Structure formats: C-alpha cells, structure tokens
Amino acid sequence: MNKEPKGLEGLFPYLEAELHLEPSSTVITQFKGGYSNLTYLITSPEGEFVLRRPPLGLKISKAHDMVREFMVLEALERAGYTKIPKPILVCEDESLIGVPFFIMEKVNGLILRNKIPEGMDLDSDFFVKLSMYSLDGLLALHQLELSSSGLLALGKPEGYVERQVIGWSDRYFNAKTDEIPEMEKVSDWLKENMPAKENVGFIHNDYKYDNLVLAGPDNPEIKAVLDWEMATVGDPLMDLGTSLAYWAEEGDPDILKMFNLTYPKGNMKRAEVIEYYAQNSRLDLSDMLFYYVFGVFKVGVIAQQIYKRYSLGFAQDPRFAALIHVVKACGTTAMKSILTHKI
C-alpha cells in the first residue's frame, strides 16, 4: 500500500460524522495491485474499514457504479450469502471526493495475486484444496435463491447472453487502439454461435483467486469474495467461462498468467474445472467452448479498455503499458480454441 491522501481530504469530516473516526488519528492508504476501481484502507483506533471508488479518468461502464455495488452486497446479505465484506455506508455526494463511493468492513486474510508471496511456502495440497473451495464457492453463488432475496431485481436474465456478446464487442471497438484481427474475428464468431438455451442464476462476473480472501497459508478456505462491481443475474455458464479465461495453466503464455495463480502444481486444469462444475450442477455444459471463448474475449476487452485509459493519460500505472500484449494474447488464445475445439 502507498499513502494516497491527495483528493481525499473531504473524507475526514464525513468519516468523523458518520463513523465517529477522529481525523487526527485516521490514516487512509491505497491498496496496490488493482486494474479497475480503486480501493483504500481506512485505519483508526476505532477499527479498519475499506473504501471503494471508481477509477480516475474515463467512465467506462456501469461496472464502476459504487451505489449499485453497495446494493449488491446488501442483497447478498439478505440472501444469506455470508462470504462478503459487510456493507457499511454508501455516499452519492460527489462534493466530498469528486465521485460516489462506499465503505465496507475490512476482512483480514490472505489474498493471492499472480505470484506466491515472498517467504510463503504454498504446496500442491494447498492448491488442490483452493481449486475445490473456489469452485464450491462459485457453485454456491450460482445456486442462490433469487426471488425472495431481492437478487432477481439486480439483473435482467432474459437475453443476457446476446446483450453481453454485443455489449463487449461494442466496448472493444470503442476502446480499440491497435489492429488485432483475431479479436475482431472472435467477436464475429461469438455473434454467430450463441447457444439457444439460457440459464439463470446470480453471477459474480470476475471470480478468480485474487478476488478471494482466504483464511491463511495453512488453510485456503474462503472467508470473503471481493469486487462485486460486475455482479448481476444472468447465465452462470458465462460466469464460469470468465473464470476459465483467467484460469491459466503451466503451458499457457506467460502474459496470461499475470491475473491468476492457477498454474502452480496442485491446481485443477481447465478440463478438470469443467468436469467438477458439471458433477455438482444441473446445467448442461455441452456448449462450454462458447462460454470459454467469450470469457477470453471479455478479458481481452477489459485489458483493451484499461490500455486505452493509459494511452490517453488517464492512468499512469506502468503495468498498464503491457496490457496491449494481453489483448493480443487473448485474441490468439480464443481463435486457437475456436479452431481446435479445445479449452
């Protein structure tokens, strides 16, 4: 984390009024590592809290709607889903820091990025268990009751797949900076190969290891799932496809290993992920190639959007310069799957 008080001065009176945090003893620091919405740790003698706000610069999509993300957490809480940070406050008053934001509880635990933390020994047994726990968590989410919990009101499941395919294709062309023919071919293929049947469930849309808070290096049980900005009601297999797109294996291009620590020994392979999900779900996974290709395409579009923000000067993080290579790798990977019918 690095201290990032600039632009957040207006928070201190608000925190004092709403949470009784003394300004002189309250410290706000930014978490490093994210590619999208910004996350800050609020530390005071009264406790620790986490603040979420949209990224700097261009407003890309509804994914940066802080009020909606807060509502998602509240609805999940009502549905009895316990693996979330407790939502505490939401603020729509942009006069404080220039954008809406919300505050939630801080859940302590281990978050795995794209490398095993220095000095930490995570063996294959750890990753065997983590693979299983993560898929169990995804299945539990997909099987939540929708109506009485109010979750159904957070999305429009009818026509979800078509809207996603068209929407992410449009986002790619709107954010396009380089000629990447493979991405355009994948966009066409997705539009021509949408499955006839749609499934309905609550979905996270960005479910991967670095959005999971684990109990610790000796216990990979999931304490909380983070980053609900893209959660909605839609087809669970679209969610699984996105998770598979992030599920890098040892033989995958190195640049596609930068998002998920699924390649060390012990982790399930993508084929095993699909088999495990199929054994524990009533859904028909015969069209899984489509959902995987969509997931890879979506990851490429997300990288393209962030790269465009970087190229326009709205984001200075030097990591973002490499994201155009992620877009190219996603295009190549998706086309290879289409041609070989392999995931």
Automatic annotation (TrEMBL):
Keyword Oxidoreductase: no
Record flagged with keyword Nucleotidyltransferase: no
Domain Aminoglycoside phosphotransferase, chain residue ranges per copy: 28-261
Keywords: Kinase, Transferase
Pfam family, one: APH
SUPFAM superfamilies assigned to the protein according to its UniProt record, in alphabetical order: Protein kinase-like (PK-like) (SSF56112)
GO molecular function per UniProt: kinase activity
InterPro entries for the chain: ACAD10-like, ACAD10_11_N, Aminoglycoside_PTrfase, Kinase-like_dom_sf
PANTHER family, sorted: HAD FAMILY PHOSPHATASE (PTHR47829:SF1), HYDROLASE, PUTATIVE (AFU_ORTHOLOGUE AFUA_1G12880)-RELATED (PTHR47829)
Protein name: Thiamine kinase
Phylogenetic classification of the source organism: Bacteria, Pseudomonadati, Bacteroidota, Cytophagia, Cytophagales
